[in-house]
Amino acid sequence: MNLDDWVAASTHELADLAQLADGTPDALDELLQRGLEWLGRIAPYDLAVVFELEGPLLRAKAGRGSLFRPEVREYRIHLDRFPSLRLAIEERRCRVFTEDDHAHGDGDLFDGFMDFPHGHACMIVPLVTGSEVFGVMSIDRARCGHYPSAVVDLAEVFGRLLALSIHCIRQNQKLARASLESEERAAALARRIGEITEDASVLGDSDNAQVRELARQAVLVAQTSSTVLLIGETGTGKERLARFIHEKSPRGKRPFVPVNCAALPSGTLESELFGHERGAFSGALRARPGLFRAADGGTLFLDEIGELPLDLQGKLLRALQEGEVLPVGAEQPIRVSVRVLAATHVDLEQAVAAGRFRGDLYYRLSVYPLRLVPLRERMEDLPAICRVLLEELSARVGKASLRLSAGAEEALRQHDYPGNIRELSNILERGAIRAAAGTIERADLALFAPPGRKRPASSEGGATEALVSLAENERRHIQRVLRATGGRIYGEGGAAEILGLPPTTLQSRMKRLGLRRETNA
Questions:
Q1: Do residues 380 and 368 share a domain?
Q2: pLDDT of res. 51
Q3: pLDDT band for position 466 (50/70/90)?
Q4: Structural domain of residue 487, as residue ranges?
Q5: Is 82 part of any domain?
């Protein structure tokens, strides 16, 4: 092939090769196979192999020719054994091997693996563009002789063009992976839009000693890479605490990816977490990185970890211990750097005893357990929590400066909140929608009390009260005694004496029930 014919053919071929540089997983393999096929038109061969440089090793990546066999793909060459290869890469020039090179130089690349006659035609083509070194192509013929200089020049130019196409594909694959990871994060956040709780003041400036200690422990563990297990009732703000730990950690600028293990179908949960390869199962039309890889460098929050199926618990344990994930349909695991925060409202120790949860996974997750305080045990924080929630609700309901009347706040104190801050948020939102102006009244809350649940009474001595819990009865009784004594606890005629309790016990119980000493407690 003369130069003019080669230029015309190469222009057409490069246009085709450019279309392969689209970042799809198979684009690189197809490019190498097409490149080797086209190389044979200018430099006939019996075996042509593309080697990719990985540290000190050249690893066979693709091959063609009458002597090619599958074992070639497992062939490795240590670069230190062949100085001529290193020189070809450094100088970016093709190297033609002569009979003397085979006898007295580095020797043949395939010595001990494949027999070629001494003096056979052999050429090395470096694959280098800019500062990026992909590797080399080796071209061998079973007949004796050498490649003409014109063929060597054409092969050298083609090697540069092929290296440039490889670079383009690699860059597009990086962009494609980044795009998929962004899609994973966006999808994870989209799934949570309807689930995120306005659980404000999970920590905040709490008056509750347990909450203050929780905040201290959260700040302490945030500076580490330890796995944290958040334990708490539904609606106590486990996700917000997980975000707090992430933001205070060295990974705070990296992704925070939340996933509710109970909200995803069990059939797709493995693919959601660990990803899958294209064609791994019916409907897998493209590869997907999974949430672990989407959170690479950051934090993965596994909410409701107790709902994770047993068959996936072992794979999660491996990911935590080895720092790698195996996508569905993949042969090789992928390294990831992810901090895992898990949360549950169930008793995992009991689940382990019942055989529903792996003991080894439980111990791996609970390196640093944190227990969230339910709202009924921190009622002294109720006003501050309501203020933050109402600020968040203002934009949603289109009413500025939302606030509670004294009667509405008192009504909220009479509730036991089995749904915790999530339930409080819903009550406030319903009240905000009903409120005529910016002030939420007691009646606005009572109107939307859920069926079967107690409604706040319209007045202290008003309509018949609904049945309430023993704890609520205790709270109301203490409240009445405090009013009768003007808030006095100690001494003769004080609330402690009337109730038959030591003053310190009464104060502790008041704190637990969210009562104040003032006469309007």
A1: no
A2: 93
A3: very low
A4: 469-521
A5: yes
Distance CA(416)–CA(266), nearest Å, equals 34
Nearest to 304 by CA among 343, 348, 352: 343
Complete edge-to-edge strand list for the sheet that includes strand 57-64: 76-78, 57-64, 47-54, 132-144, 120-129, 95-97
Instruction: Please count the structural domains in the chain.
Output: 4
Distance in angstroms (rounded) separating the CA atoms of residues 76 and 53: 10
State the CATH number of the domain containing residue 352: 3.40.50.300
Residue 218 is encoded by which pair of tokens? 């959260």
The DSSP element (H or E) to which 444 belongs, if any, is helix 442-447
Distances (CA, A) of 445 to 230, 238, 411, 453, 467: 31, 26, 8, 12, 18
Same domain? For 228 and 358 the reply is yes
Q: Both tokens of residue 346?
A: 């169930």
Round to whole Å and give the CA distance between 460 and 89.
Answer: 89
Burial of 319-329, coded b for 16+ CB within 10 Å and e otherwise, reads: bbeeeebbbbe
For residues 147 and 237, membership in a common domain is answered with no
Residues 161 and 51 in one domain: yes
Residue identified by tokens 């890479």 is 225
Residues 460 and 473 reside in one and the same domain: no
Domain end marker among 338, 373, 408? 373
- Read off φ and ψ for residue 444, nearest 5 degrees: -65, -35
Q: pLDDT tens digit string along 119-171?
A: 788 889 999 988 888 999 999 888 887 888 888 888 888 888 888 888 888 77
Torsion angle defined by CA atoms of residues 405, 409, 410 and 411, in that order, rounded to the nearest 10 degrees: 100
pLDDT, position 30: 83
Q: How far apart are CA 200 and CA 381, in angstroms?
A: 11
Question: Is 353 among the domain residues?
Answer: yes
